[in-house]
Records
---
Amino acid sequence: MKDSFAREGRRVCASAAETKALGRELGRAAEAGDVVILDGPLGAGKTTLTQGIAEGMGVGGRVTSPTFVIAREHRPAGQGPALVHVDAYRLLGEGSSGDPLGELDALDLDTKLEQAVVVAEWGGGLVEQIAGSYLVVALDRSTLAAQDPECEARIVSWRTVGR
């Protein structure tokens, strides 16, 4: 990850548009070999953040939740790395071999992981095995919604693990 994105931080994003804008910042700083874990409950904004990352990286294709396909690969429009968007929950779920790296490799992606940016929704338990360092991003919608049920804001916090 380029130094333009802080190794650790926290931001309140008042809307999906602000979440996507944060993702664009992260995407502009992403480099081949980077791994990002997105953690948060359903509806927290993981895919919205990933859409922003894709925009910041300049990759092509519509970014949607990888829930039904396990992983989607988005090719760069220019010279940058590809984006591999993974639903690690499905990858590690029922019926898996118990070997997350083998499961990811079995997807037969065209891009080698070290030449791409990997964004893994529900990625805890997977990324530790494929990367020496990674960025963990937690999306929390419940804290602010508990204070105001009409609130659409989320608290996004991140930290780099390793190196």
---
Amino acid sequence: MDDHHILYGARSGNCLRAAVALEEAGIAHTIRKIALRQGEHKKPAFLAINPQGLVPALAVVRAGREQTLLTQSNAIMFYAAQRAADINLGGADLDAKARIWERFFFFLTEAIAPSMAGFKLAGEGLTDGTRYFHKSIVANLELADSYVRTNPYMAGESFSLADIAAYTITVAHKDKLDWSRLPNLDEWFKRVAARPAVARAMSAFD
């Protein structure tokens, strides 16, 4: 019997990255929406899945075996890439993998992590820190324009995990970008948005 995948989440960047990876990898899954505003992520039923009370969480249910739980969006993305290795979300050879890792971690450390820090500072009313992080994020997304100057995707000729990370963080900050100065990024953004799997994933938690 095939594994059954259940993705618990809400409409957040981390959850959307996980959903895009599963869709692009062609992994059939069930979406279970978690109502964050109602505090569902802090209730016993969900805490039994992820004691941290955070989304996303991926349950891999196998007949006759204990289910596997992944509670980090990046782990879910790499799981999807390995599960569907023939699709090459993670790269077909060492050089391709290395370039994907390089770009993936660039977006993770230089845009996604600061975005999360800025969100938390905003919640504490620390506006100076929030502005600093937003400025840094925009600068790094503008740098990414050079990554797609000669290639259709962030790590080369093929769509990869790097594009998933880049796309979801760009969606979150697209209104802060001066797109007239970013023609390559603009074309890449439209190219990724037009992918059927991406479109399905981006509406998964609506």
---
Amino acid sequence: MNLKFKSSLSCAVVLASFGFNQVGAAAGFVDDANVALKLRNYYMNRNFVDNGPGQAVPGPTNRGAAEEWTQSFILEARSGFTPGPVGVGVDALGLYSIKLDGGRGTYGTQLLPTHDGNKPADDFGRLAVAGKMRVLETELKVGEWMPTLPILRADDGRSLPQTLQGAQLTSKDLSGVTLYAGQFRGNSQRNDASMEKLSLNTAGTVAHGKNTVESDRFNFAGAEYTFNDKRTLVGGWYAQLEDIYHQQYYQLQHTQPINDQVAIGANLGYFIGDEDGDGLAGDQGNRTFSGLFSLRTGGHVFYIGLQRVSGEAAWQRVSGTSGGTLANDSFTWSYEQTKERSLQVRHDYNFAALGVPGLTIMNRFIKGTNVHSATTNDGEDRGRESELGYVFQSGEFKDLSIRWRNSTLRRNYGSNSSFDENRLIIQYPMSVL
């Protein structure tokens, strides 16, 4: 069994702090604790499309498809804080996934890690532990968990989520203001049980003849201010993947109700990136604009996504992390290549408006142009995605969700780059404590 459990010094610190007053500490530590188990059944099939002469059977297995099926168990435990001016606690994330189907000839979905000549693992998992300390409305967290920051989002798009190891300080002592600072030192990606160094997602452009560039320091700081009855948020962030890139990010989010049935919204972001220190990945000059605009009326939500990448490098992010901060990030692609311009049109509908709560559907189309890569100076990509979902509203299976995702992606550059895809994801959350 390929199951690796990772311990953290922070856990020992928390337990030591907890021991000084076991009876009093238990009041907040245990009484405010929450333990939940999520069962996730994930099936994925990706059929590759021939991109032209010389590639009669596309795909990493040379069989034209990647197909795997897993059953995963995600246990999330969060303690409360011990009483007193300085409260301490601990969070834990137990992750375990079992292969139900898939082999050497069908690997490549990233539902499972591969070993010994691309053989998918029979199972994999890990235990992530983080200690936490709180003073007033300021919290320090040290250990391993799933961060969801605009400049660093752990990816939860397969069997098990990605986790990162480090420290983060979050302060909400000022009304309407949230301050962030910290450092991450390593990560365990969504199809890996080990803790590895951090690398650049666009490492294909690295300099000095290297195929991979790594760092063990991701430093960050940020501030967000919410006002206008929480309808408006502005923020500024700084991120540094040491000796690879540094990045600034500025964000504006706003929702404006027109009446009881209609609201418009905007989520705007602008990234400024450049190489850092030794510049192990070469030129990282980058400017990326992202804008997602919405109109909500009744059960409908209409979106327009605009995205533009400029400069000499693609949009920067840590390898394995989600591109969810970008307007045109999708299930299969993020349209973030060097100099790429992309447009999205999307429609969501909630059937609760027709008296069927829990049933939803989403359709979107994204097209990117002007892609610059190792193989093209004017590439194009386009994707069409649909998701049909249902969440049981009552009965024995209350909160069980079923999602079917059907997608197509076409690119006129690269290899193994065009495919048709289906995913079926069934999740059942259960409260343990």
